[in-house]
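One thing: could you explain this record?
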Amino acid sequence: MARTGSFGDINFEVSEDTVRTWSGLQRKLKARYATHEVAGDKAKLEFLGVDLQEIKFRIRLDARWLSPEKELAGLEELLRSGQPQPLVLGGRVFGEFVLQDFTEAVVYTDEAGRTAVARVDLNVTEHN
C-alpha cells in the first residue's frame, strides 16, 4: 500500500484493494494590512498579521474501489461537524484544518444511474 496523505480519518492511498487519490493541490497564504489615509500624501500600510491558510485539492472517488456515496456522506458529516482535522498531503504536514466546503461532480454513472466516478473539490481552512 502506498499512502499519499490523509485528512482526519480519510486516508489517501493506492493499494490492491483501494484507490483514493488526491490531486491539484493549491495553497493560499495571505497577509493582512490596514490602510491609513494620509492627507496630501500616499496612504500608509500597516502589517496586521497573516491570514489563515487555505488549501484546495481534488479527490477522485471510483466505485471500482470504494463507495462514492459512502465517501460523500462522510465528507458531509465532516463538514457539518466543524471539527478540525490533521491534514497531511505528499508527506507534508500542514496542521489542523476544517472542511470549509466541497463541490461534488458526478463524472460517470453505471447502468442504474448510480455514481460510478465522482470528482470532489475540497476547500479546507487552517484552524488556529
User: Anything to note?
Assistant: The two ends are 32 Å apart (CA to CA). The chain is about 10% helix and 60% strand. The longest strand covers residues 92-109. The chain has a mean pLDDT of 93.
